[in-house]
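new request in #modeling-help
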Amino acid sequence: MLAGAARRGGPVAVVYHADADGISAAALACTAIERLGGTVVTLTPPKGKNVYDETFRARLESSGAKAALVLDTGGRGGSSWRRLPTVIVDHHAADGAPDVDVFVHDEHATSTSLLVLDLLRPLAPIEDRAWLAAVGALGDRGDAARSEAPVRAATARFGGASVPEVVSLVNASGRAGDPAPEIALEALRAADDPRTIARGEGATAARLHAMRVEVAEASRRARRVAPRIRGRWAIIEIHEKCRVHGIIASAWARRLAPSIVLVANKGYVEGRVHLSVRSHERTDLRAAMRALLPDEGGDYAAGHERATGAIIDVPTYERMLRAIDDEAARLGGVEHGRARSRATSSARGSSARARRRRRMEIAPPSWGERRTTHEVESWRERASEDAPEARDTEEARQQARARGGGARSAAAARASRERRRVDRRAERRQPAGDRAGRNRAPRRS
Ligand SMILES: [Mn+2]
């Protein structure tokens, strides 16, 4: 169907999610369609919206496209796409198949970009562009994707540092205060070699580097905000134009276990509150959210059992906070863990000393633990544009780069990884109280 549309001259609308996986999958698909003789129009939903937004669907329909290829955006059961012949390629968990012509869906696939490579490589000559699939795989799964053949091939061809570097630059384009994923797509489509983007060569690559600095600064500010503990919830309110709420929630999740971490970003889109909800425990977070506001639908508690969020207005957010207080009062006597209950009691104090003490007491009980598989799972994105594609490791790299300015050598990166490892070991040897006082903000591990 796609090959047919391309050979008839298209244009084919390539619709993509604004993260490393979605953007690299789109770049790969554009190459394939063009090499089949077709033309493309590329589209992604605007800031704070997803592909199910009505105005975005109208834009898609008025694009003049003869078919649509929708990449990495999640499939919602029952949703109708019938007005254009549509192919959805996706690897997120889905409640059911959307009403489209072709739904290429593999929940166990590492990334949409790898699915696109497998799907299109028999149709068009794209082997020279297979490194694009590696960008998406590393973007979604990090080191867990290193065993995938296209990732190994890209590493052998371009070295180990450049593709992860491109991942973090491409992700920044979707997270910036004024997101410009089309810039990342343009850079990927134009590059024959990821190293040119990593080095910041050319105007588009330079813009990606600037956006990454902006996102790193926003996330550094947001990481300094102390959580407020209410019952089983840890609430962190930030005001950032950048999409950092998911990163911050993931970064705090283990540290605040067993609390459910709720990051509310009031600065992302004027008049709206974007929520990211994560937990270190195996908790059904969508159910926990629905228990607060059972009648909210749409973008409330969408996503994943282990990684959810919401986009709500301010009055709804305030209702939700009241529901959290009510729930906390109801569950008042229940102990969920020592660190947490101490934090709850001191949260009522209002003096600076009490606030300082509270921050010290909510230190993680298990700082040195290794990340578990289900945590990695919880980073994967779904239909909600808000979800947490970011990984702490990538975040740490971003910050290191923002500090150092410019790309670093692989050796320097290795050395800094080793330093962090040593730091962590030192931390584990210290008594919990000490550790907590020094490391109020969440850090990578
Ligand atoms: Mn993906």
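bot summary: Residues 334-350, 357-409, 425-445 have pLDDT under 50 and may be disordered.
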